[in-house]
Amino acid sequence: DADLARYYPALQSEVHLVAISDRQRTFAPELNWAGTVHNALRVDDWPFQPAKEEYALFLGRFHPHKAPHLALEAAHAADLPLILAGKCAEPAEKEYFEREVRPRMTARDHMVGVADATAKRALLASARCLLFPVRWEEPFGMVMIEAMACGTPVVALRAGAVPEVVVDKVTGLICDEPAELGDAVRKIGSIEPAACRSHVAKRFNVDQLGAGYEAVYRSVLQHQAGNARTRRAHNGFARQAPRGVA
């Protein structure tokens, strides 16, 4: 955003930045990026459940950027109830909920508020799909890998890091327009829960995160060591050079 866009360039080369997605880096290519390391989780901490119940899930803040109103429309288009869980405490969140979300809810839908760690796992594991109709450049989206770790596919709009996290037609379905979401929910049964879990284990487990940061640290240290050698060589040449030689 505007504040950070002014702050980080001021650091120049003093701080090496690590992005949580390649997409995030594209919005500030001038910054001192040292690499990209995706967020991760401990896959074994998330329950795998191949048998799903007949509901779709929205899990996130009640904000236009997260667009739970689009999740409701998609679930209803697929004749599924929607469970909505997330924070709705700030005045702007409450105003948005009353204006856009509540009027779209039916007697089949359920609002459960903020879900703790236990409730979140139960909701994600049993859902037919996670709806992620994001309307901003989401830099990552942890809830997507949490869902897939449980064997639950993701139906999302193409924005931010979504294409880096979800493999279209393998671990979920990525749509270009909100009008496509309902049809995607109807087709989500074609996604294998085991493929979702396997994808997270291979790409977004803590081992990958640790290895990613280790690689970044080594790269930075090697670069700094190379610069130091260059400076020493230059200084030695400057001391030995005859007068008048630059």
Mean pLDDT: 93
Class computed from helices, strands and strand pairing? alpha/beta
Radius of gyration, Cα only, in angstroms? 23 Å
Strand portion: 5-15%
Q: Give the distance, in angstroms, between the N- and C-terminal Cα atoms.
A: 45 Å
Profile the largest sheet: 6 strands, parallel
Q: What is the global morphology?
A: elongated
Poorly predicted segments: none
What letter string, H or E per element, gives the SSE order?
A: HEHEEHEHEHEHEHEHHH
* Number of helical stretches of at least 4 residues: 10
Number of strands: 8
Strand order of the largest sheet: 5-4-3-6-7-8
Q: Top keywords for this entry?
A:
single chain; 246 residues; alpha/beta; two-stranded parallel ribbon; 10 helices; 8 strands
